[in-house]
Structure formats: structure tokens, C-alpha cells
Specification:
The protein is built from two helices and six strands, in the order H-E-H-E-E-E-E-E. It is an alpha+beta fold. It has a domain of about 80 residues: hypothetical protein PF0899 fold (2-Layer Sandwich). The strands form two sheets. Strands 2-1-6 form a three-stranded mixed β-sheet, with helices on one face. The chain has a three-stranded antiparallel β-sheet with strand order 4-3-5, with no helix packed on it. A hairpin with a 4-residue loop joins strand 3 and strand 4. Helix 1 packs across helix 2. The longest helix has 20 residues. The two termini are about 15 Å apart. About 25% of the residues are buried. It binds zinc ion. Zinc ion binds next to loops. The site of zinc ion (ZN) has 7 residues, from loops.
Length: about 130
């Protein structure tokens, strides 16, 4: 289940951000997950809850922000919305669609208990 390694990657980013910015408790983790990223949100949630145990993100709420998939249709020569890899082009029905958007997952931001009371924005790409 690759969601487990993704969840571990997210926790690693959170711990690095905590070390850098000096917060000790994470309340909300907001993740953007592309429709074509190959990530099952339910599985990711399950894995996240497992890997945050005994970390500063234990009990944090995971918010998954979906990002629609898109692709470039070589026949229409334009960008079209697709829900999955190898979907047909919704405009012409052709299969020469190359996925261009919604392929990644990234950490949007964190809500933390910050000793300074400052809002924290740890926007870090998770590749
Ligand atoms: Zn097309």
C-alpha cells in the first residue's frame, strides 16, 4: 500500500517544519491530492492516523483537498478534464490524452499550536 509511504513522507515534512518553525503540536493537516495522483483518500486517511501516533501530529485532523485531473488532448489540441489516466477525451472521444494536471499530492498548510500565536504556513512540496 503506497499510501503508507506517502503518509510517512507527510509526517517527515511536518517534523521538519516543526524543527524549523518551533511548533510542537499540529491540529490540522491540509493536503492537496490530485485525482490522477493514484492516491486513495480513505487509505491515505487510515495510514495517516496510524503513522502520526506518538508524533507531534497525533490526533491531527487530515483535510484532503481534491484537485481535478486534466489532460492535453492531441487530437483537439486543448486541455480537457479527465477523471482517470487513459480516460477518453470528453470532447472527441479519442484516447490520445496525456495527463497534465492533478498528478501530485502536496502539503498545502498546517494549523499548529504556535507558541508565538502567529499563523503558520508550511507549504512544502512532497515529491
Ligand atoms: Zn479530444
Amino acid at each position: 500500500m503506497h499510501e503508507m509511504s506517502l503518509a510517512e513522507g507527510v509526517v517527515r515534512i511536518i517534523e521538519e517544519a516543526a524543527a524549523r518553525e518551533g511548533f510542537s503540536r499540529v491540529r490540522v493537516v491540509r493536503l492537496e491530492v490530485g485525482q490522477l495522483a493514484g492516491v486513495e483518500p480513505a487509505a491515505l486517511r487510515f495510514c495517516f492516523d496510524a503513522v502520526v501516533r506518538d508524533t507531534l501530529a497525533e490526533g491531527a485532523r487530515l483535510e484532503i483537498v481534491p484537485l481535478a485531473g486534466s489532460g492535453w488532448c492531441h487530437d483537439c489540441a486543448r486541455e480537457v478534464a479527465i477523471a482517470a489516466h487513459y480516460d477518453a477525451c470528453p470532447a472527441c472521444g479519442g484516447y490520445r490524452v496525456q495527463a497534465t494536471g492533478g498528478l501530485e499530492m502536496r502539503l498545502l498548510d498546517l494549523e499548529v499550536d504556535d507558541p508565538a500565536g502567529e499563523p503558520c504556513c508550511a507549504t512544502t512540496k512532497s515529491e
